[in-house]
Each structure stands twice: as C-alpha cells, then as structure tokens.
C-alpha cells in the first residue's frame, strides 16, 4: 500500500507545480520581433531559415495579414477568407491541422498585423518547423505542409521559438504549450 502514498504525493507535487506554472506563465513569451520571416513559394529553401541543430521547445507560426495576396480590405475579412482557403485544402483529403471554429469567431475584431496561426512543441523544433513548411501532403501528421498549399503561395509567415531544454520536458513543456495556446489563441491546430 505504500506505493499509493508515493503516487498521491507525487501527484500533489505535480499539481502544485502546474498551478505555479499557470501563475508565472505571463513571464513566458515568444520574442515575436526576432521571429524568422519567410514567404511561401516553390523556391523557398527551408533549410536556410534555421540552424541545423537539435533543440527542444515550443514554436509559434504567424500570418502577416497586411500581405497584398490576402483577399479582403479589413483584417477580419482576410482572416475569414484565409480560413476558407485553409478548409478547402482540408476537404481535398489534405491531412493536416484544422481551423478551430471557436478561435475563428474570437478573431472577428482582430486588428493586428500578425495573426497567431499555430503553436506546437517538439523535442527537435527546427526539424519540426521544416516539416510544417515542406512535408508531403500524404504524410499522416498534423504538420501544416505550407509549401503544398498553392493557394497560400506569396503569403508571408513568421516563426518565433522558445527553446526549452529541460530534463523533464514531457512533464513541463505540454503545460507551457497549453498556456501559450490559451494566451495567443492560434487559428489552426488540433486542440
């Protein structure tokens, strides 16, 4: 029976740390101004965007709403039209993350230049970001596969990164990712 007490104590300690993390999450922010900007095209070489190193962490993709290739005059209209274009590919058996309807509704009065699009985590963030750009549409992962969405060519994106190199990644980083998702409300995801 002593294992039950050990597990209960462990569970209590984890819950306390999760609550502490929620309180202090306001101190964890993406440095969006230092994000890497790129325009989607067939010529884009994603290998030149980032160092070829393995790092754990969380990343944020954003869409530049002031891009002339987006349809609409108001930013809210551009977001709506972008979401429709994203869904169209999804309906064409293109396996990737979806537009989250409640977040789309949350953006009806959005008036910033950069729209939070997708937040993810990975133990090799630079490799995963490249998959979001280049991965084949037939691969069964939730990568965005941006290059293969021809209707998005010419649009500008930005990726910001938080490197989080901790031993207990599997305990810590999911909570950070979830908290950042609640703060930024990215338009696309599986959660």
Task: Supply the key terms.
single chain; 191 residues; alpha+beta; four-stranded antiparallel β-sheet; two-stranded antiparallel sheet; 5 helices
Tell me about this structure.
The chain is of the alpha+beta class. 38% of the residues lie in helices and 17% in strands. It is built from 5 helices and 6 strands. The strands form 2 sheets. A 4-stranded antiparallel beta sheet has the order 1-5-2-4. A two-stranded antiparallel ribbon has the order 3-6. The model has no long low-confidence stretch (mean pLDDT 87).
How would you state the average pLDDT, rounded? Answer: 87
**Counting H and I runs of at least 4 residues, what is the number of helices?**
5
Question: Largest sheet, if any?
Answer: 4 strands, antiparallel
Strand order of the biggest β-sheet: 1-5-2-4
What low-confidence regions span 5 or more consecutive residues with pLDDT below 50? Answer: none
Relative strand content: 15-25%
Shape descriptor: globular
- Radius of gyration over C-alpha positions, nearest whole angstrom: 18 Å
What's the arrangement of secondary structure elements?
Blueprint: H1 2-24, E1 36-39, E2 57-64, H2 75-91, E3 98-99, H3 101-106, E4 114-122, H4 125-134, E5 156-163, H5 169-184, E6 188-189
Antiparallel strand pairs: 1-5, 2-4, 2-5, 3-6
């Amino acid at each position: 029976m002593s294992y039950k007490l050990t597990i209960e104590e462990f569970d209590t300690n984890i819950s306390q740390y999760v609550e502490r993390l929620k309180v202090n999450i306001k101190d964890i922010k993406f440095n969006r101004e230092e994000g890497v900007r790129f325009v989607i095209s067939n010529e884009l070489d994603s290998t030149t965007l980032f160092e070829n190193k393995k790092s754990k962490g969380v990343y944020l993709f954003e869409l530049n709403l002031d891009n002339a290739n987006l349809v609409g005059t108001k930013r809210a209209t551009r977001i709506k039209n972008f979401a429709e274009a994203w869904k169209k590919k999804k309906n064409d058996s293109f396996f990737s993350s979806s537009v989250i309807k409640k977040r789309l509704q949350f953006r009806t009065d959005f008036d910033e230049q950069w729209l939070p699009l997708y937040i993810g985590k990975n133990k090799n963030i630079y490799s995963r970001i490249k998959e979001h750009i280049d991965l084949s549409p037939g691969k069964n992962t939730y990568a965005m596969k941006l290059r293969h969405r021809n209707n998005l060519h010419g649009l500008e994106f930005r990726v910001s990164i938080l490197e989080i190199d901790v031993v207990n990644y599997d305990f810590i980083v999911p909570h950070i990712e979830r908290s950042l998702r609640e703060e930024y409300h990215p338009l696309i995801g599986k959660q």
